[in-house]
Amino acid sequence: MRSTRNILSWVAAGVAVLSVPTAPRALEAQTGDYTILVATVAVTEPVNRRFGERIAEEVREALETFPGYMAIERDDARDLIDQFDLDERAMTAIDWQQLAMRMNASLVMLGTAAQADGGVEVDITFTEPSSGDELPMRSFVVADDDSHEEAAQEIMQQFGSGVEYLRSLAFCADYVASEQASEAISNCNAALALSPDSERAHYWRGRAYMLDEAWGSAAADLQRVVNGNASDLDALESLAFTYAQLGDGVRSLQYYRQFLDFQPDRVDVRMRIAYDLTQAGRWGEAVQLLKDGVERAPDNEDLLEYLAGAALQAGQTAGEVTDADMIREAVDASGKLVELQGDAVSPTTLSNATNAYMLIEEYDNALAFSDRALEAIAGSDGANGEGEMSREDLMAQVHSSRARIYDRLEDPATGVAELEQALEYNPDVPNGRQQLATLKLKSGDAAGAVEDFRAAVAGGGDPEQVANAIFSLAHAGHFQAQSQLLANPVAIDVGEVSRAVELFNAAAEFAQTPQTSEQIHFFLAFGYYLQGSAYDARNEADEACGPARNALTAFQGVTPHLSQSGSYQADSQQQIRDAIDVQLYRQEQIIESACSR
Question: In this structure, are residues 140 and 120 in contact, taking their beta carbons and an 8 Å threshold?
């Protein structure tokens, strides 16, 4: 056999210039050589058949000293070819790939040689048998069909670059698995420098960009992969998720559906994708995917339960209906589940149905479902699975929902009782203490409400939010209508104004910003002015002592609060000050005259 010294001299030099990055842990643990099945290069007449055989022989010998790779013995390959009764000369590329898989080869070398202008054109590929991915190789021309050594040298030189590409790609994938985005991107860039059209390198770089949350760059790489191979499931799913993160719901849903076209009846896959969408805040797209699944499997309880929960979330924002059609989807899915499960219906399903009916203002249905939910939860053993709500949390959720229902039915006292039960089951009901305080205000228990507002703030609630909540309830519920009677003060309800003033004082306790504080103090001043005006209007006939004292006390409360009102409604402040000067003098004169009799 001819010497391979000319080839080996390049290999020794080539290894020195390979840029091998520091290995991630997974690659550090890798042992053994990659094996390569080297097929005889197929020739086209008039090229001599021995030319193809000699190229293969030269490459096998060169691989003996190529670090990390070794050629499968020629005789081992022939034995298996004979075993399967194949004709080596008639074997196709697919036959060689299947043989390589049988022999657990990492790569298979295939090639052709044909007469061309200036000599013989040689076209070689190194292919991964399982994936069909190829190392970057280009065809070349040698002088004649005696130039097998020169051809082998060129093949090994290109293989060296291909190995560097393959290593960079492997490092990139491994760094992605290790969630080291910058290292992954660097290695994929190195792979793409050697093979700019590599779909795998673009895919892995896209995944690395996803780790880095560089969604635009990820979309560009993954879109390129999908454009080249519309059946690449990994790329399709990654691209769909990326578009969801970019807020492009139309494209996200398009590619998720394209992904599901390949496995439309895999409920677990559909639900995992729906979860990905909800994590990206794409509730509408998640609901649509789940609806598509329910159309294919109308009685699948897992899909229906997920659909009910997702639609309920998609149709509301902070407890306010933003998409009534979505809420109706939740109602319908819950109803179907109840129909399918009967007495075995889950408490969570009933709780979701309660909330859905409440949001579409079908309160009788909501209360009926909540009654069933409470019975079902009370009868359960409390052994919910991982990730599911505990019995206590479910009871708290249902009672909290019932409190909101009674609030909407304008029965705040019953709402208070329901919410107090919710807090007994779970003291950490979101915003529960503040909601309880609000219900107590509506039921007339101002003192209890203030105590609960204080507890809410002590538990981490926003005092400014509390101040605004109390102020809004006081103004809308007790003050606004009375302030419109100033032209006819005898009609003012002093009791209503007094309740408003009491609540304004409570709101002032929680106010944090100057703007809120100044507004509250202005309305406190205005409230005392209304009280004084009402007392005075009832006293004009006989100018009695008692009413005058009440009026004077009320008018004296105005100025201290005006002094804390800043510039809020400055013109109105001045009018009140002018009127107060007159009223203070008037009440003092009445008291001096009437109370000394």
Answer: no
Alpha-carbon span 95 to 593, nearest angstrom: 121
User: Helices 347-359 & 301-314, crossing angle to 10 degrees?
Assistant: 30
234: which residues sit within 8 A by CB, 6+ positions away? 203
* CB atoms inside a 10 Å sphere around CB 317: 10
Strands 320-321 and 69-71: unpaired
Which residues, including other chains, have CB under 8 Å from residue 479's CB and lie 6 or more apart? Answer: 496, 497, 500, 504, 523, 527
pLDDT tens track, the chain, 597 positions? 333 333 322 232 232 222 333 334 333 334 457 899 999 999 999 999 999 999 999 999 999 888 888 999 999 999 999 998 989 888 998 999 999 999 999 999 999 999 998 899 999 999 989 878 888 899 999 999 999 999 999 999 999 888 888 889 989 999 999 999 999 999 999 999 988 989 999 999 999 999 999 999 999 999 999 999 999 999 999 999 999 889 888 898 899 889 888 988 888 888 888 888 888 888 888 899 899 999 999 999 999 999 998 998 899 887 788 998 999 999 899 889 888 888 787 888 888 888 888 888 899 988 998 898 888 888 776 555 445 678 888 899 889 989 999 999 999 999 999 999 999 999 988 889 989 988 998 888 888 988 988 888 888 889 998 899 889 988 998 999 999 998 898 899 999 999 999 999 989 999 999 999 999 999 999 999 999 999 988 876 667 888 889 989 999 999 999 999 999 999 999 999 999 989 899 888 888 888 876
Strands (E), 395-474: none
**CA 180 – CA 576 distance, rounded (Å):** 68
- Residue 529's CB is within 10 A of a number of other CB atoms, namely 26
Handedness of CA 152, 155, 159, 161 (dihedral sign): positive
| Token pair recorded at residue 343 | 């007495």
Tokens 């995917």 belong to residue:
289
DSSP 8-state secondary structure symbol assigned to residue 39: P
Residue with tokens 């032209």: 487
* Beta carbons of 333 and 294 less than 8 angstroms apart: yes
Under 8 Å CB-to-CB from 235, ≥6 apart: which residues? Answer: 203, 206, 222, 225, 226, 229
Distance from C-alpha of 247 to C-alpha of 477, rounded to nearest angstrom: 41
- Give me the long-range contacts of 247-255 (CB less than 8 A, separation at least 24): 249/282, 249/284, 249/285, 252/277, 252/280, 252/282, 252/285, 253/285, 253/288, 253/289, 255/226
DSSP string, 345-356: --HHHHHHHHHH
Look up residue 197 and give its two tokens. 């059209």
> In 178-300, where does DSSP find H-type helix?
181-194, 199-211, 215-228, 233-245, 249-260, 267-279, 283-296
- Name the one residue in this structure whose structure tokens are 């780790």: 211
User: Which is nearest to 522 in space by CA: 487, 477, 478, 475?
Assistant: 475
pTM: 0.53
Coil, strand or helix at 298: coil
